[in-house]
Design brief:
- Helices cover 74% and strands 0% of the residues.
- The protein has helices at residues 4-12, 15-18, 25-43, 45-48, 52-80, 94-114, 119-135, 138-156, 160-180, 186-198, 200-203, 206-220, 230-234, 243-251, 253-274, 279-295, 305-316, 322-329.
- The chain starts with a helix and ends with a helix.
- With 333 residues, the chain is mostly helical.
- The chain contains 18 helices and no strands.
Amino acid sequence: HILILPVVFFFVLFLPALLGLSWAPEITNKVMRFYTQSFLVAVTPFFILSSSEELGEFLKTTVFLGVLFTLEVISAMVVTKGAIWKITAFGSSVIAIGRLVGVATVYLGLKIMNERTRYWHLLLFMAMILVLFASGQRMAMFGPILAIFATELLVHGLRAKHIIRGVVFILIAIIVITSVYAFLPTRSRERVDRMFVMGIAGFADQGRGSLLFRSLDEAVSQPIGIGLGGAQKRLGIQYPHNIIVETFLEGGWLAGLALIAMLTSAMIKGYLLMKRRCAVYVYAFGFLVYTVMYAMVAGDINDNRLVFAMMGIFLRQTFTPSVECKRQTSRTF
């Protein structure tokens, strides 16, 4: 597929900055992960996700993993009863929990908004909301609701039915958190307290804001980038917690512009496919919106591989005939 070329070119753009790197173990690890895991995740959709049916199987598998993470976290919360600093699932980080359970929450939320709701859908949705707050990740707490609303607004416009269901979502989240507040990990309780007491100021992280501005200042003077892992050597930080800024900083100006162009193209193509009322593309677009939002505030470029996956998926997809769209929308995805 011709659109695989800009994806490959994006990874090539990081190579010049590698020449001046001091190859410490952590830098070697990041480079290896970038050119193996991240690269394969970005290009694989062009080979195995060429149809809407294959895309549907991928989304359902991702949701299934999110359900497993949800069950693992809830079981850990029951055992610890809040007597733990922060939670984990199968040894993963809280950032990974927020990302994976978050996309599963987006899927369920869109399903509840657009299809006949079953009681276990609501129960699982409530459980996932609980896990997202237990992760303590700010974007995980509110990002899924924002992604659901944004997707619904773009697909259907402003409808009273969706506004009412959105209010119900918010009420569900409040009920869940107030009911099990004592079982949340200590770190998560502190963040919830700070947000409710300080409002928007409590949601912001001044430390990450400082990392972001320092990274931007350095990126302006480095047109070819400082190399993968260079932020740790040059600035003394792991990463700026923003995939766009990290790309400009470590990959250079062209890499940053290429990433913005590909994400914009994926968003536009996803919107056009979604407007044809294909159910699978509505869910996939919600995935894309949430993963991009999440990548703007958490994790490094390799942690956010799901962004590359969703970007590659939409760049690869062809416009599905309307007959297939109607058939697909008529059955439960």
